[in-house]
């Protein structure tokens, strides 16, 4: 296989968990709720998948458990932010701190134990002859295909359906949505929970496909990168796909350079994605300084109907 | 039943009937047993000062607030309105003073936002809806571009979107909260024609306002509210402006006549060819020319968003400019600096007093000190002179008649009028050479407004220059020695106070700069 193909395969492998987490973040933030709990949710997703799989040996049960656990965490976040109108940043950080600590505790007994799972792959040999991208698409795992479908589905949902219109209104101007008869609180709950479940799925994806052994803190800040990716993608699922793969490439690049036996210390190589995150944020901030950023306008603001205005 | 009979006799159909409505916000009673009736097919004006409780009453009718007590009937049936959705289902639609529009969505998307039918919204569906919406706009004379996002529309157009939104959803009772506060006189005239059309189609129209002229021009019946209570409801034909003013304020008001104007002194502020960019790189001011002399009030009239905010920000050092020159008191100002503006003697009454004028959670002393704490009088070696400052503040509070429980009360707990007095106290005590006052009477009742006008006049008489930026044309005309009209970032007309006429200024505010254009 040529190098480009190899790099692309690696980028997709590393980028897919980021993509799920980013899509989940977009769901949350389009509804106007900041989600800084991504890191904790991913870790909880990963550890839940690991434990359930080791207990039952069933992939579907493992995923079900992941959805359950991360949706429950999403529910707590939604309760804090929507009903109690707590500070969304603090609530998100609490989810991350809780997830980081609790996943470490839960995963103690299985730490370092290889899972030996095989996530089914879709074999499409007739794609093989296409140069460069053929070999990639001929042999992708189920998670990746689901992420493709999800990107398109979310894009169509947001821009072509009545619920999508409501979602856009929800994050930009909940007071207007309310006056138009949209149930702001209910829908915000819904989107926060679904978004959290997607972020949990990102963690499960990482564990089941990308590095199939539970290690404490295995996401290594990818949840935070997903938070930044939501901004890079300007809350748009299609852009999220490209952003996630871009960071996937950066992630793999570190390993590649290491394999060539260069003298650069591995710690520096591992820093690449995080340094680039900072650089890209600076670059985008500079380039778009005169443009509206696309941020949902009511992001971070709780909505109370009877608030005097 | 009995009620139905009386209605038939008087041949009026009551479409809205609110009885004994009570609403409290904490300790404040916003509505105190309010009774309010609207007939079908009439334009009903709800008149009252800011804070009289008009918007609160209307918010309960439209489901935004819930009444603490009282009954609401619509078309003779007792109803419960728990949410805007309930109100809509009963045919009540409200056009809020701060529009309820999603800026990033198109006009058409905003109109269909609440529609539940059809999950799928393809291009065909949208086209169809756009045609429906355009049909409604045409029927009522409410034109706007349906496929453009809201943030690209003018304020007048946005209001039309809001009105079409209620009509599209089948509202029979339409409430407009202070509808003309954002419009040019021309746009307001157009709005009144639309209201007439709605009335002719049998809709009940309620407008809340504090402008007497409008009430007399548009309505069939008038209800007057004062301090949370309904005072009376009268037919327009049986009353006049003077009586309404008395009912609204609760006492006879003497309309202050303009005193003799002093002759302006030397040139104080000279702005030449000023170019300024707004927040997103859009051009806010282009080649703007402006002069203010000592001892004159220069009024800047214009519809919101034509560069007024940026102009005030540049003059007070809050915003940098791209090109042009500013000379103040004979010296050129080179860079934007709030501190040097303060030291040069430029005072500022900002547009939003609680956002950029006062620190809401701090007390009176701290708020009064903000611009003078550096001086030897108020601090020594970086330490504030606490007891001296308290005495100084106490004097100012008495001099400017600020009503406050004590000097430590957070200023956000004061009424709007008292906050504004406090702000004026701070700005005037520095003996400014130039005062930049932006919407100085916004949200104030008639008494407080009179006070602010008096302060500005005194300032002018003492030889300072005043630049008054206001959307309230009446205010500008009443106070100013010269009126400038700002449109699209430029001063497109200057009129001396003696020759000011509303119609001409209204044309200029709408951007029709020459007589020829205006005639079209």
From TrEMBL, chain A:
<dbReference type="GO" id="GO:0005886">
    <property type="term" value="C:plasma membrane"/>
</dbReference>
<keyword id="KW-1133">Transmembrane helix</keyword>
<dbReference type="GO" id="GO:0022857">
    <property type="term" value="F:transmembrane transporter activity"/>
</dbReference>
<feature type="transmembrane region" description="Helical">
    <location>
        <begin position="240"/>
        <end position="261"/>
    </location>
</feature>
<keyword id="KW-0472">Membrane</keyword>
<protein>
    <submittedName>
        <fullName>ABC transporter permease</fullName>
    </submittedName>
</protein>
<feature type="transmembrane region" description="Helical">
    <location>
        <begin position="6"/>
        <end position="26"/>
    </location>
</feature>
<feature type="transmembrane region" description="Helical">
    <location>
        <begin position="33"/>
        <end position="54"/>
    </location>
</feature>
<feature type="transmembrane region" description="Helical">
    <location>
        <begin position="60"/>
        <end position="82"/>
    </location>
</feature>
<feature type="transmembrane region" description="Helical">
    <location>
        <begin position="89"/>
        <end position="107"/>
    </location>
</feature>
<feature type="transmembrane region" description="Helical">
    <location>
        <begin position="267"/>
        <end position="286"/>
    </location>
</feature>
<dbReference type="InterPro" id="IPR001851">
    <property type="entry name" value="ABC_transp_permease"/>
</dbReference>
<feature type="transmembrane region" description="Helical">
    <location>
        <begin position="136"/>
        <end position="158"/>
    </location>
</feature>
<keyword id="KW-1003">Cell membrane</keyword>
<dbReference type="Pfam" id="PF02653">
    <property type="entry name" value="BPD_transp_2"/>
</dbReference>
<feature type="transmembrane region" description="Helical">
    <location>
        <begin position="189"/>
        <end position="208"/>
    </location>
</feature>
<feature type="transmembrane region" description="Helical">
    <location>
        <begin position="214"/>
        <end position="233"/>
    </location>
</feature>
<keyword id="KW-0812">Transmembrane</keyword>
Automatic annotation (TrEMBL), chain B:
<keyword id="KW-0472">Membrane</keyword>
<protein>
    <submittedName>
        <fullName>ABC transporter</fullName>
    </submittedName>
</protein>
<dbReference type="InterPro" id="IPR050107">
    <property type="entry name" value="ABC_carbohydrate_import_ATPase"/>
</dbReference>
<keyword id="KW-1278">Translocase</keyword>
<keyword id="KW-1003">Cell membrane</keyword>
<feature type="domain" description="ABC transporter">
    <location>
        <begin position="269"/>
        <end position="513"/>
    </location>
</feature>
<dbReference type="GO" id="GO:0016887">
    <property type="term" value="F:ATP hydrolysis activity"/>
</dbReference>
<dbReference type="InterPro" id="IPR003439">
    <property type="entry name" value="ABC_transporter-like_ATP-bd"/>
</dbReference>
<keyword id="KW-0067">ATP-binding</keyword>
<dbReference type="GO" id="GO:0005524">
    <property type="term" value="F:ATP binding"/>
</dbReference>
<keyword id="KW-0547">Nucleotide-binding</keyword>
<dbReference type="Pfam" id="PF00005">
    <property type="entry name" value="ABC_tran"/>
</dbReference>
<feature type="domain" description="ABC transporter">
    <location>
        <begin position="16"/>
        <end position="252"/>
    </location>
</feature>
<keyword id="KW-0677">Repeat</keyword>
<keyword id="KW-0813">Transport</keyword>
<dbReference type="GO" id="GO:0005886">
    <property type="term" value="C:plasma membrane"/>
</dbReference>
<dbReference type="InterPro" id="IPR017871">
    <property type="entry name" value="ABC_transporter-like_CS"/>
</dbReference>
<dbReference type="InterPro" id="IPR003593">
    <property type="entry name" value="AAA+_ATPase"/>
</dbReference>
<dbReference type="InterPro" id="IPR027417">
    <property type="entry name" value="P-loop_NTPase"/>
</dbReference>
């Amino acid at each position: 296989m040529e190098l480009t193909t190899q790099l692309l395969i690696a980028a997709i492998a590393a980028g897919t968990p980021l993509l799920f987490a980013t899509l989940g973040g977009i769901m949350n933030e389009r509804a106007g709720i900041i989600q800084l709990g991504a890191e904790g949710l991913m870790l909880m997703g990963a550890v839940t998948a690991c434990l359930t799989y080791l207990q039952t040996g069933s992939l579907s049960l493992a995923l079900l458990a992941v959805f359950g656990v991360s949706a429950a965490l999403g529910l707590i976040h939604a309760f804090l932010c929507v009903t109690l109108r707590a500070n969304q940043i603090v609530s998100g950080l609490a989810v991350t701190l809780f997830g980081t600590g609790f996943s470490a505790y839960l995963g103690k007994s299985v730490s370092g134990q290889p899972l030996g799972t095989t996530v089914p792959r879709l074999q499409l040999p007739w794609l093989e002859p296409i140069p460069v991208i053929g070999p990639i698409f001929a042999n992708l795992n189920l998670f990746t295909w689901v992420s493709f479908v999800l990107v398109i589905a979310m894009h169509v949902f947001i821009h072509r359906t009545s619920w999508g219109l409501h979602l856009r209104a929800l994050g930009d101007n909940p007071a207007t949505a309310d006056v138009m008869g949209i149930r702001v609180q209910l829908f915000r709950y819904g989107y926060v929970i679904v978004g959290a479940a997607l972020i949990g799925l990102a963690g499960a994806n990482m564990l089941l496909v990308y590095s199939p052994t539970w290690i404490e803190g295995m996401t290594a800040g990818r949840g935070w990168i997903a938070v930044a990716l939501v901004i890079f993608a300007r809350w748009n699922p299609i852009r999220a796909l490209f952003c996630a793969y871009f960071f996937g490439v950066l992630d793999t690049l570190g390993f590649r350079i290491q394999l060539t036996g260069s003298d650069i210390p591995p710690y520096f190589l591992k820093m690449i994605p995080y340094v680039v995150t900072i650089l890209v944020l600076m670059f985008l901030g500079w380039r778009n300084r005169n443009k509206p950023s696309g941020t949902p306008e009511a992001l971070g603001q709780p909505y109370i109907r009877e608030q005097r205005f | 039943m009995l009620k139905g009979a009386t209605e038939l006799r008087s041949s009026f159909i009551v479409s809205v009937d609110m009885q004994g409505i009570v609403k409290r916000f904490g300790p404040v009673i916003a509505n105190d047993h309010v009774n309010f009736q609207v007939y079908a097919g009439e334009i009903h004006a709800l008149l009252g000062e800011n804070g009289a409780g008009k918007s609160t009453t209307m918010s309960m009718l439209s489901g935004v607030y819930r009444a603490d007590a009282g009954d609401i009937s619509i078309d003779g049936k007792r109803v419960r309105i728990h949410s805007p959705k309930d109100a809509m289902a009963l045919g009540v639609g409200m056009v809020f003073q701060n529009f309820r529009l999603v800026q990033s969505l198109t006009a058409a998307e905003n109109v269909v936002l609440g529609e539940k039918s059809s999950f799928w919204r393809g291009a065909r569906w949208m086209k169809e809806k756009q045609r429906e919406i355009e049909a409604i706009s045409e029927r009522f004379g409410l034109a706007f571009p349906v496929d453009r996002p809201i943030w690209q529309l003018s304020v007048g157009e946005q209001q039309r979107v809001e009105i079409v939104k209620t009509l599209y959803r089948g509202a029979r009772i339409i409430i407009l909260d202070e509808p003309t506060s954002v419009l040019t006189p021309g746009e307001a005239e157009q709005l009144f024609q639309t209201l007439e059309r709605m009335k002719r189609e049998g809709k009940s129209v309620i407008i809340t306002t504090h402008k007497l002229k409008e009430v007399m021009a548009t309505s069939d019946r008038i209800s007057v509210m004062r301090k949370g209570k309904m005072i009376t409801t009268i037919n327009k034909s049986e009353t006049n402006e003077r009586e309404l003013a008395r009912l609204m304020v609760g006492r006879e008001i003497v309309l202050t006549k303009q005193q003799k104007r002093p002759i302006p002194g030397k040139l104080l502020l000279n702005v030449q060819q000023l170019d300024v960019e707004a927040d997103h790189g859009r051009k806010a001011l282009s080649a703007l020319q402006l002069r203010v002399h000592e001892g004159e009030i220069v009024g800047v009239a214009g519809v919101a968003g034509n560069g007024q905010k940026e102009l005030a920000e540049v003059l007070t050092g809050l915003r940098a400019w791209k090109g042009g020159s500013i000379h103040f008191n004979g010296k050129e100002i080179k860079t934007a600096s709030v501190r040097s503006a303060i030291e040069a003697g430029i005072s500022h009454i900002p547009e939003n007093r609680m956002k950029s004028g006062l620190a809401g959670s701090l007390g009176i002393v701290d708020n009064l000190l903000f611009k003078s704490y550096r001086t030897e009088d108020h601090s020594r070696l970086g330490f504030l002179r606490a007891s001296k400052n308290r005495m100084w503040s106490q004097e100012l509070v008495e001099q400017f008649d600020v009503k406050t429980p004590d000097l430590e009360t957070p200023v956000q707990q004061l009424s709007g009028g008292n906050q504004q007095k406090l702000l004026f106290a701070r700005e005037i005590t520095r003996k400014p050479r130039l005062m930049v006052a932006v919407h100085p009477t916004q949200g104030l009742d008639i008494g407080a407004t009179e006070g602010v006008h008096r302060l500005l006049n005194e300032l002018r008489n003492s030889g300072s220059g005043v630049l008054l930026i206001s959307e309230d044309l009446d205010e500008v005309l009443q106070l100013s020695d010269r009126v400038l009209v700002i449109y699209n970032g430029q001063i497109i007309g200057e009129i001396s106070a003696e020759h000011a006429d509303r119609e001409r200024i209204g044309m200029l505010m709408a951007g029709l700069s020459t007589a020829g254009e205006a005639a079209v």
